[in-house]
């Protein structure tokens, strides 16, 4: 044995012995660095392994957009100045200085990095005491119907380029089995659902997820967790890249596929919608993506399930991924983290637009996550309208369009439609111009704006406001508060700086001064933030909140008030209540101003003054804070009430199957009939 080892050792030395001393030194240095790298890599892998099980699920919710919130305050040192919708008064109540603890300020909501895209994680993973820990599983899944059982009206669809049953659907999941089960059940009830075209992409390997996927009989592809990653947003981006690459590799002939997440449920015509819109993505180079979601598609603010629009803002809740975009662009430059930010970056969007519907075909059910809370879910997601109709063909009246007339309201539902107004982009510009030129258009100025918002009916209300660019748009925040729409910048749903939405039977056009439409139509008349200081007479309808917004006794903290009610103070909702508008809804405020007290928002009954937190050096309102002179505005939450959400989702799923055999075909439909 010694002879053999000696011979082996000598055979290794011979090649080295013949080298020069300089070469030998270089060889030793290289060997040293290679050894160091291997040792370092081993340490990193060992650390990542110990931490990987503690990471949150990689749902992209927009940290809920999939939309991501880039603005807002509540960061120390980043507080807004006194808002124009409050009275400029002193910052402390008399000499007593109500609530000496410096609160955080402004009417701006709390900063939420990734409201859509970091997702809602499993309820059991939550740390917050006010988050639910119980859940009742849904009843047995509803049996899916086959197309030969559908109502005959569905035969009127002409799927000449893409058939809904041919669309590949890739589902993003990790370890949220309770959401995943609801998602799969809902998808199974969509019209023209094809089990063979659904792929569940699981990040990691989780027994309960595997069991659910097996129950439904779907294909599953597992992406092993990347042990070198420790950040949740990086896990998400890593998994999304894997899904896109693998889906196109598994289906080399498809031009696009649908990507959805495990905390979504779907409209009856979900697949039909994408079958109608896919040709636009495939054929129009100015289209970036097609989404099934309207960020501002709230109750009372949508009415036309036939209409689709363009937006500069990438909408990532349930969207159609283009093979061309993936292979020619994204696969080469995909980011390490925050994939949604990457897709919204103007350098990547390159002036292209996302198509989205007026009435959403996706409903987001992720009410909890690393960056998602009950309060945020109720503010921006619960009141989104999910299209209840199975038969809802897209487009404008085809005959009128040929005559140059852009008619958005098309009745009867069986009338011939056209999507030519959406593409090419020149047609869409002409459609937008038709709104400005309509005989129903009412141009607003500082004198007639509020009266018009409160009294006009069935008009197109147009106003302009100053903003230097889509990212430099500070005046948008008070406008968004007035209309109760998304407050973030860039403005969600806006096209070339113009946002169109429904409001109290009117169509509203909010146009920034940098918009080409402002340059064409504004005549230099702009509304200021002060125009929107008082609450409107009309408010969009809301589902009753499972949070209780209540007022305390004088000197009582929100913590004690909520405890008396058998619930808990919701700190996140408390932050969103920190505005003069909310205070005026609950107290008879003679004035409202900034104050530096952790007991805000609050009301001083002796003087009739309301106070919200704000100002330099302020910190956030606290549930436990109180002051002997003030009554607090509080938000109380009972975790057991989340069962109400699950009941709502169940009804949506049941309605989807009903639409297959009993579609709504009446000629006249108003929002109140189905919202």
Task: Tell me the structural class.
Answer: alpha/beta
Q: What is the tally of helical segments?
A: 20
Number of strands: 22
What is the radius of gyration computed over CA atoms, rounded to a whole number of angstroms? Answer: 28 Å
Regarding quaternary structure, how should these chains be classified?
single chain
Strand order within the widest sheet?
3-2-1-4-8-6-9-7
Helix-residue proportion: 25-40%
Shape: globular
Question: What does the average pLDDT come to?
Answer: 81
Largest sheet: 8 strands, mixed
Low-confidence runs (pLDDT<50, min 5 residues)? 1-16, 43-139, 668-675
Alpha carbon gap, first and last residue: 86 Å
Report the β-strand fraction as a percent range: 5-15%
């Amino acid at each position: 044995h010694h002879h053999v080892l000696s011979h082996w050792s000598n055979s290794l030395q011979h090649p080295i012995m013949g080298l020069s001393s300089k070469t030998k030194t270089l060889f030793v240095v290289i060997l040293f660095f290679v050894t160091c790298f291997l040792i370092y890599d081993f340490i990193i892998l060992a650390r990542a392994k110990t931490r990987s099980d503690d990471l949150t699920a990689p749902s992209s919710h927009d940290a809920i957009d999939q939309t991501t919130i880039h603005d807002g305050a509540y960061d120390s040192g980043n507080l807004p100045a006194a808002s124009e919708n409050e009275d400029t008064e002193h910052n402390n109540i008399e000499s007593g200085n109500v609530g000496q603890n410096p609160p955080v300020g402004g009417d701006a909501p709390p900063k939420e990095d990734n409201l859509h895209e970091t997702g809602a994680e499993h309820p059991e993973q939550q740390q917050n005491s006010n988050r639910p820990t119980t859940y009742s599983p849904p009843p047995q899944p509803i049996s899916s119907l086959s197309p030969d059982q559908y109502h005959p009206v569905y035969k009127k669809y002409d799927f000449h380029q893409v058939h809904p049953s041919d669309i590949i659907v890739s589902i993003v999941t990790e370890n949220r089995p309770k959401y995943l089960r609801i998602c799969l059940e809902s998808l199974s009830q969509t019209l023209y659902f094809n089990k063979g075209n659904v792929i569940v992409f699981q990040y990691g390997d989780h027994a309960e997820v595997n069991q659910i996927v097996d129950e439904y009989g779907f294909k599953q592809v597992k992406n092993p967790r990347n042990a070198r990653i420790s950040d949740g947003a990086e896990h998400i981006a890593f998994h999304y890249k894997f899904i896109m690459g693998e889906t196109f590799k598994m289906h080399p002939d498809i031009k696009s596929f649908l990507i959805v997440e495990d905390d979504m449920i779907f409209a009856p015509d979900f697949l039909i919608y994408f079958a109608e819109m896919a040709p636009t993505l495939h054929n129009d180079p100015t289209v970036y993506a097609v989404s099934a979601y309207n960020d501002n598609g709230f109750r009372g603010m949508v009415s036309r399930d036939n209409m689709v629009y363009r937006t500069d803002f990438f909408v990532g809740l349930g969207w159609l991924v283009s093979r061309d975009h993936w292979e020619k662009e994204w696969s080469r430059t995909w980011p390490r983290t925050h994939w949604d930010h990457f897709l919204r970056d103007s350098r990547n969007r390159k002036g292209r637009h996302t198509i989205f519907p007026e009435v959403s075909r996706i409903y987001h059910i992720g009410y909890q996550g690393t960056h998602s809370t009950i309060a945020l879910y109720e503010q921006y997601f619960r009141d989104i309208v999910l299209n209840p109709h199975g038969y809802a063909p897209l487009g404008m009246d085809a005959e009128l369009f040929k005559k140059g007339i852009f008619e958005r309201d098309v009745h009867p539902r069986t009338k011939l439609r056209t999507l030519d107004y959406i593409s090419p982009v020149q047609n869409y510009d002409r459609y937008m111009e038709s709104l400005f030129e309509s005989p129903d258009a009412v141009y607003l100025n500082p004198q007639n704006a509020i009266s018009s918002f409160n009294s006009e009916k069935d008009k197109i209300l147009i106003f302009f406001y100053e903003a230097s660019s889509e990212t430099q748009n500070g005046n948008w925040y008070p406008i968004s508060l007035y209309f109760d729409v998304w407050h973030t910048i860039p403005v969600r749903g806006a096209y070339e700086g113009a946002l169109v939405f429904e409001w109290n039977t009117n169509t509203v056009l909010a146009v920034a001064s940098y918009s080409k439409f402002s340059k064409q139509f504004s005549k230099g008349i702009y509304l200021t933030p002060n125009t929107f200081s008082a609450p409107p007479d009309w408010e969009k309808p809301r589902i009753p909140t499972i949070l209780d917004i209540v007022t305390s006794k004088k000197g009582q903290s929100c913590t004690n008030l909520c405890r008396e009610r058998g619930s808990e103070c919701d700190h996140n909702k408390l932050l969103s209540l920190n505005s003069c508008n909310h205070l005026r809804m609950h107290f008879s405020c003679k004035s409202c101003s900034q104050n530096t007290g952790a007991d805000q928002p609050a009301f001083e009954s002796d003087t009739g003054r309301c106070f919200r937190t704000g100002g330099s050096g302020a910190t956030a309102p606290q549930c436990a804070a109180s002051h002997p002179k003030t009554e607090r505005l509080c938000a109380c939450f009972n975790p057991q009430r989340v069962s109400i959400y699950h009941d709502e989702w169940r009804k949506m799923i049941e309605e989807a199957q009903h639409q297959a055999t009993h579609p709504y075909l009446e000629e006249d439909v108003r929002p109140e009939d189905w919202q």
